[in-house]
Amino acid sequence: MTLIFSLWSSSYCRGHWQGALLADPAPVHGDPRHGVLRDAAPPEVPAFVKNHGLLPQQELQQLLRKAKLFIGFGFPYEGPAPLEAIANGCVFLQPKFRPPHSSLNHEFFRGKPTSREVSSQHPYAEQYIGRPHVVTVDFNNSQEFDSAVREIMRTQVEPYLPYEYTCEGMLERVHAYIQHQDFCVPETPAFPAANSSRPWPGGPAGPFVILPNSTGLGWAPNASAPPCWPPLSALQLLVSEEGQSCVEACRRGGLVCEPAFFRFINNKEALSRLEVQCEGLEAELNHVFPAFSAPQRECGLQKEPLLFSCAGASAKYRRLCPCRDFRKGQVALCRDCL
User: Fold this and answer.
1) Do residues 282 and 328 make contact, with C-beta atoms less than 8 angstroms apart?
2) Is 20 left (phi over 0), alpha (psi -120 to 50) or beta?
3) Cα separation of 103 and 50, whole Å?
4) Which residues have CB under 8 Å from 186's CB, separation 6+?
5) Peptide bond connecting 99 to the previous residue in cis, omega within 30 degrees of 0
């Protein structure tokens, strides 16, 4: 059985994908999400789809346990239904967005104060679960879509629930947050003000060291620092390419961007240790800073900590990105966080 999950107004729901589903003898079921009545299928729903309308949770779970393939057609983003489907033994097939959806090209994000780019309907499932439970393809490529459906129908998968979505995983995460953070004490600035000429306070001339077998920087074990969590031992300072966000730069290194670390790399010491040549160093309100432009030898630090962003990107600048490792099945926590 194939179960389709989507807003039916999606353009993905019309056209070439129907051929792949019609060619397979398994029945196709739908669970539309725009308030249609159970016994009144909207005209957009193809005739070969059995429309269940809006199902109670228990009935939806029963349907998921019978299904093999769960298809999303691009919206809603990052909902819980794909995770429920995977936990019930379905394979989640979702569209790859080319280019990624953002406030620059998609109505849903337009006007929202974010520069985030969404690479697929459920980026978490794409990046941290992946095959065989999650298959992400270009739905505009009929051959790629057809091949994915046929591959899934031949594949046997077991129900899968990531550890961080279990009760134990959630409690482990909450325990770590509470145990290692003091919410009653104001956050101490890690460095002098971005436009200050004062040197780094403490022993070494700078707190950064070159990581083994890497072009990135880590925090020197003997460098002083205010209390911080995640621990600074997890910090890996990487440099993005022009036009690349810190989300993508960290991901390519098998890491995640950690916003809590921005305050530790927003300084001239980081630029100096990276051997960046700066003819000018300014502190500005710019969501891609700290960053630098190598051709112009321009360097910029972030003036307003509220503007620190993992998602921002600029064709002019290479960003300083505060990356960290993570525990498998518990992305919110670093390896030294427990």
Assistant:
1) no
2) alpha
3) 35
4) none
5) yes
Report helix, strand or coil for 248: helix
Residue 7 clears pLDDT 50, i.e. is over it: no
- Do 40 and 63 touch, CB atoms closer than 8 A? no
Dihedrals phi, psi of 171, to nearest 5 degrees:
-65, -35
CA distance 9 to 45: 9
Burial 271-281 (b: 16+ CB within 10 A, else e): bebbebebeeb
Where does 130-228 show beta strands of DSSP type E?
Answer: 134-137, 208-210, 217-219
Q: Is 234 helix (H, G, I), strand (E, B) or coil?
A: helix
pLDDT in tens, 248-299: 999 999 999 999 999 999 999 999 999 999 998 999 999 999 999 999 999 9
Q: How many residues does the chain have?
A: 338
Alpha helix (H) residue ranges in the chain: 17-22, 57-66, 81-87, 123-124, 142-154, 167-180, 246-252, 262-265, 268-273
221 cis-preceded (ω within 30 degrees of 0): no
**Burial category of 288 from C-beta neighbours within 10 Å (exposed 0-12, middle 13-18, buried 19 and up):** buried
